[in-house]
C-alpha cells in the first residue's frame, strides 16, 4: 500500500518567511471544498471584513484531513489550527465530517500531551452560506490570541 504523504511543501510555502512576521497571529484553517472553502470565498465576494491572519488550506472533504498536516502547522508556528468543514449531516461525502471530528478529538489529546495548549486547536463548522460566520470566527480567534499569546514554537524558532 502506498503511504500517504501530507502536503508539507505546500504548507511551508504558505507560511511567513521573515522573522518580523513571526509574531503576527497566524491561523491555519483546514477547509473542505464544498462548505467552508466556499464560505470563506463568500466572505470575500460579499466584502465581509475580517483580519488577513488566516491561511485556508482546501481539501475535498474534512474526512481527507491528515492529522500530520495539523501537527506540521503547529510545528511551523501556527497559533491556531482550525478544523472546519460542512455542518454535521451536510457532508457531501455523507460521513467524512463525522470521521474527521472523531480523529480531531484524538489529535487534540495528543497535542495536549505534546505540550500545546488545546485551545490552539479548534473545530468550527462553516457552511457555504456562512461568510459572516467565517469572518466572526477569525475575529474570535484573534481575541483568543490576546489571551493565550503566541505559539511556543515561535519562541523556539527565534532561538534558532
Ligand atoms: S464535504 Fe464538507 S466535510 Fe465532507
TrEMBL record:
Keywords: Iron, Iron-sulfur, Metal-binding, Oxidoreductase. GO terms for molecular function: iron-sulfur cluster binding; metal ion binding; oxidoreductase activity. InterPro entries: MvhD/FlpD. It comes from the Archaea. Residues 27-149 form the F420-non-reducing hydrogenase iron-sulfur subunit D domain. This is F420-non-reducing hydrogenase iron-sulfur subunit D domain-containing protein.
